[in-house]
Amino acid sequence: MTESYDIAIVGGGPAGCSAGVFCSRAGLDTVVVTNDRSTLRKSAFVENYLGFPLGIEPRALLELVETHAREAGCSLVDGTVKSAETDGNGIVLHLGERSILAERILAASWSDSTYLNELGVRTETESSGSVSVVQTDERGETNVDDVYAAGRLTDTHHQAIVNAGDGARVALEIIEELDTEFYNDWIALEGYYESYDREVPVGVKEIDHDERRNRIERATDFMSSFFETDRSE
């Protein structure tokens, strides 16, 4: 069975899910392939992820980033990429009995990256050790057309919040390449741009005060319910 997407992101950690949120919200049909082997799982507790002043348990953080990706419209697929190839329609990722065809891929998993060798992606030894990392240009694209990489896999510092930012950065590079008029993923109050005699830019959505209150209430209820659930071992 082969499924088709605009972009396939390999890696369900902070870098991959962050990229997925931006790609999906920009209208790209997005799949995130995850094998539940994020480096974040090696951490006992996370105390430097902005927004959690007292810290957060790593599994809870991973659950939140995956939920965010789903809410943004991403499809999440459990599995490991066994092999990859290009054909006339794009790049095919083989996950055993399941295959994914995508116009572009974004590699964001250090533990699931051997398939990149089959695509001819160039690597180098990381600056602070002996592990191979993927070489990219300033936009996050590798030496292979339509193959991008982000996060720890590219020698980005392995702090989770840094990886999340790098995933978002590369996603925005892809989005802006596909739509040069894309301005920002931004929610503004209805009439904001009209007050400046401007059209609403591409990527921006305006909402009224009632919808703003509804979104605040839904977000508050979700987070309250999430943290009321006992996730201790």
TrEMBL record:
GO MF: oxidoreductase activity
PANTHER family noted in UniProt: THIOREDOXIN REDUCTASE 1-RELATED-RELATED
Protein name (record): FAD binding domain-containing protein
Domain FAD-dependent oxidoreductase 2 FAD-binding: 6-39
Keywords: Flavoprotein, Oxidoreductase
